[in-house]
Write a structure and sequence with these properties.
Layout lengths: L1 H19 L3 E3 L2 H25 L1 H6 L4 H16 L3 E3 L2 H24 L1
Length: about 110
């Protein structure tokens, strides 16, 4: 049940990011749900591999390089999911920053539920 709640809240977070970050577009709830699922799967597979490979760089940048990896995962997801589009790396990076901040709120909500 928590996984379902987290998935829906992440999709809502994507909709919020699309309102805040220019160049980050989501065409409704269904593309947001699919994009949240694809981003989660990418982070669990390819993103995990990239995070392991770039671990020394992440240490040197105090973890800020993880936002770059998350931005890349968002760009890849925007190429896969119809109705979800990110125009360039800068919107993907700032979208990753806003999603990270919203993710902290989501984890707090899901933890309490």
């Amino acid at each position: 049940m928590r996984l379902l709640l987290q998935w829906i809240l992440t999709a809502i977070a994507l909709l919020i990011v699309s309102r805040i970050v220019p160049g980050f577009h989501v065409n409704g709830l269904w593309p947001a749900l699919i994009a949240a699922l694809v981003i989660g799967l990418l982070n669990a597979t390819v993103g995990l591999l990239l995070k392991i490979i770039t671990f020394p760089l992440s240490i040197l940048t105090l973890g800020l390089f993880l936002l770059v990896i998350n931005g890349i995962m968002i760009l890849v997801a925007s190429d896969i999911v119809p109705g979800f589009r990110v125009y360039g790396f800068a919107p993907a990076f700032w979208g990753a920053v806003v999603l990270a901040l919203l993710g902290m709120v989501i984890r707090a909500v899901v933890k309490e539920a």
